Amino acid sequence: MIALASSLPAHPGWTENLQYQLTGFLVVLFALGSIAILVWIIGKIFAATEAGPATAAPAPATEPEIEIPGVVLAAISAAVSVALEGRHFVIYDVAPSGRAAWSAEGRRAIYRSHQLR
Fold first, then answer.
1. I need a labelling partner for 75 at 20 to 30 A (CA). Which of 6, 57, 107, 117 fits?
2. 77 with 91: CB under 8 angstroms?
3. SS3 string of the chain?
4. Quick one: which of 94, 56, 62 has its CA closest to 75?
5. What does the pLDDT profile of the chain (117 residues) look like in tens digits?
6. 102: alpha, beta or left, given left = phi > 0 and alpha = psi -120 to 50?
7. What is residue 95's predicted lDDT score, i.e. its pLDDT?
8. Within 13 Å of residue 82, how many CA atoms lie on the same side as its CB?
């Protein structure tokens, strides 16, 4: 290390600076290329070990049909009647919403509150 430091000039020219930079760049490219090849080889090894017999994908789980109690249906129809102020309405379907619907509605409310420029 000391021999290398003593061989460097005190005031290197632009060609020597360019040589140092290119050498460092090539060292970095070589290291990154070596790592990329190593990762590719490991990936091929893992792919070869997992290439066993393919199993059939499990059937997607279906949610059980949930029946809404009559008291809840009556409350929903009363709320719609009050909201529509006595106008004629028909409720065709009432279905329970999942938890994702509540979070999506919260995000929609937040996005509605933002002022676009």
1. 107
2. yes
3. CHHHHHHCCCCCCHHHHHHHHHHHHHHHHHHHHHHHHHHHHHHHHHHHHCCCCCCCCCCCCCCCCCCCCHHHHHHHHHHHHHHCCCCCCCCCCCCCCCHHHHHHHHHHHHHHHCCCC
4. 94
5. 567 667 777 788 888 888 889 999 999 999 999 999 999 999 999 888 876 565 667 777 676 677 888 899 999 999 999 999 878 889 888 877 766 777 888 888 888 877 665
6. alpha
7. 79
8. 5
Residue whose pair of structure tokens reads 């929609």 in the numeric block: 108
CA distance 35 to 64: 50
Between CA 104 and CA 72 the distance in angstroms is: 23
Regarding pTM above 0.70, the answer is no
